[in-house]
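C-alpha cells help. One example:
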Amino acid sequence: MTTALITHDDCYGHVTPPGHPEQVARLDAVLGALEGMDLTRVKAPLAADDDLLRVHPKSYIDMVRAAAPDTGWRSLDGDTHMSAGTLAAAYRAAGGVVRAVDLVLGGEVHNAFAAVRPPGHHAERETAMGFCFFGNVVVGARHALDHHGLSRVAIVDFDVHHGNGTQDLVEDDPRILFVSSHQWPLYPGTGAAHETGCGNIVNLPLPEGTESAGFRAAYERQVFPRIDTFKPQLLIISAGFDAHRADPLAGLELEAADFAWVTERLCDLADKHCGGRVVSSLEGGYDLEALGASAAAHVRVLEERGR
C-alpha cells in the first residue's frame, strides 16, 4: 500500500491578479517540497456534475460556469477571481478529492493527498468566496457516503481561517462530523463555539498568538475525543497551512512540526476506526517557504503510514 499524490497541470491555469496571495507559485512550493517522496502520482480528473450537485445547486454551478472569462479576470467577490483557466482548475480540485476517495476506499492506496487549487473550504452552497469556488472536501465526503455507501465521514480543518463553506454545506447532515480549528476573530467572521449545526459541528476558535501548546491542548481536549466517539469510516483533512507563524494573513504561531503532530494523531484515530483511510486536500498557506515545509511534514506522515 502507498500514499497517492493527486494533482493536475490545470491547477496552474487558475491565475490570480498580481499580488494576490493565492498564487500559482503555491502549487510549485508544495510539489517541490514533496519531490523524492515515495508517492503514487495520479492526475486529478474533472469533477462530474453529479458529484458537484450533491453539494451545490445547479443554478450556482451554472453561474460559476457562465462567469468564466475568455481573457483577463472576472471577480465573484473582492478576493475571489476567475481567469480563463480557473473553471478547469476548480473542476480538477473537486475531482481530485473524489479520485482520492475512490482510491482510498477502493483499497488501491492507503491514504491520499490532493495537491490542488483553488481551495474550497470557504465556498458556501450558493456563494464563491475566500478564493474558493466549490466545496472540494464536501464533494469528496458526499461521494463517499452516497456512492460508496458509507454512513459516517469526519472532516477536520486546521486551516487558520474558519471553514465557513464546509460548515454551511454539512451543518444539517448528521452523517458528517465537521471540526474546524481557526484563529478568532479573523476572516470570515464565523466559527464561534456555539455554532454546532445539528450537533455535528465542532468549532475551536483560537486567539491570535496561540502557539504549539495551546493548539495541541485544544485538539487533545475537544477534537480527538469527539472523533473517537463519532467512529468515522473515512477521515478527510482540509489541510491549510496558514496557521504557521510565518504566514502573512494571520497570527497563529505554529511550526511545521505541529502539522506533523496533528496528522499523526488523526492517523492514529483513522487506524482505530477506519482502517487508516485518510484523504487530505490542500487549502490555505501563503508564505511559500512555510507552506512547502508544512505540506512536506504533513505528507511525510501519510507516506510513512502508507508503507
Notes: Strands lie at 3-7, 39-43, 74-77, 80-82, 111-114, 153-157, 176-183, 201-206, 234-239, 278-282.
